[in-house]
Amino acid sequence: MSMTRFRRHLLAVALALIAVAAHAADTDRRAVLVDIRTATAAEVDAWRTAAGVDWWLELGDELLLSGDVSAMRRAIARDVVLRDLGKFEPQDLVLHARGCAVDLTPPDLLVYPGSRYDLLLRPDAARMAALGHGDPAHVGADEWVEVQPNSVIARQYRFERPRALPADPAISMLVAEVDTARWFADVEMLASWDRSSFSPELATARQWIAARFAALGLEVSEPSFSLVYGATTYTPSNVIGRLVGATRPDDWVIVGGHYDSRNAINSPAYAADTPGADDNATGCSAVLELARIFSRKRPAATMFFMCYAGEEQGLVGSGAHAAGLQASGELSKVRLAAIMDMIGWSPNATLGADLDTTSANLATRNLFADAALTYVPELAITVSPLTCCSDHMPYINRGRPGILSIHRSYTGYVHYHKSTDLPANLGSHAQAIGGAIMKMNVAAVASVAGPMDRIFSHDFDD
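The structure corresponding to this sequence follows.
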């Protein structure tokens, strides 16, 4: 071989090796999930900007990092990488709302199950149209949200508030009154009826709730509203127990949760076999439990204890109530709408809850998260700037403070929207998680309603 040909051969080999190395480097740029459940805020901040990271998303208990996997593993320097997600860019992803009228997420698209929005591989336009209703009225918010790189989708609240605020003894006394056994007995009673908005047994459940409110001395009303399905109009009713405030009757605090239920097919033809224990006998029964506690204390503000119907058809009952307040000019009286939806299941003894509201309601979010930190320290809280899909939305969308409490990992509850959503299937941690979420709500609501003619202060800025 001539020297010229030899040099050409060496050059070709070198170029091939460079190409192989470049290809290897390129294929090593992937997205991974990192477990941050026990990480510190400083560690998370460091990992988000570590060598090799191209972009990141904070997802609550996990951190998605995309970039040079080898470099990222060296930078993290401990075994917290959960799994390799593959190679994609932010524009390949989209957030899709989950809840009420929205169908379950197809497994082939799911990247990460979120609180109220799942992180998906972006479907094509035809499939996106098939998955989404395209009407924000179904969930109270946009069903599809674009993914912004280097952003927080959900965050552990302990990163923002590492130490609890001092407890108020009067609020501690109220929190101690939560009776989880009594609450669970109510869950069992509600789950004994088919409570689809199309079921004749919904009226039986409504009458039972109304009787419980009346026995507490509350002013009871059962306003009906129109629910249109196909060519038929139904007239289900909300149930309201009103407790007039002792010193601030024109300040209104709503404690709510829907009492209707559904199974996999949400239509009149499938109104049977809809026990809805977790979704949402647990939340409605929590409304009853808080009504028992506060009705004995005569709060300063007026309280509305509400169990809504029509939630599963797109927040129809709560939407009717909020629209009615707006039409009457009374909406501005609402100081807080605290909604509980699916609070009775935990996959294990590590209790967690998500608090969902908008960024505009940061003070309300902090109020509830701090209540958990102070009065229920065993309850880990995750917060998100994204929210949708339950009865807090009609109030938020009309400019009033609203917030949703829901147990962690609700997407992992295998009986969700099934005929098997029975009290027995809530498992051994039901009373623990339900009690923890109720206690958080008692403490937060007390600071707004002012029980025993007291107004409890809360510092939102510490």
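Residues 158-453 form a domain with the Aminopeptidase fold (CATH 3.40.630.10).
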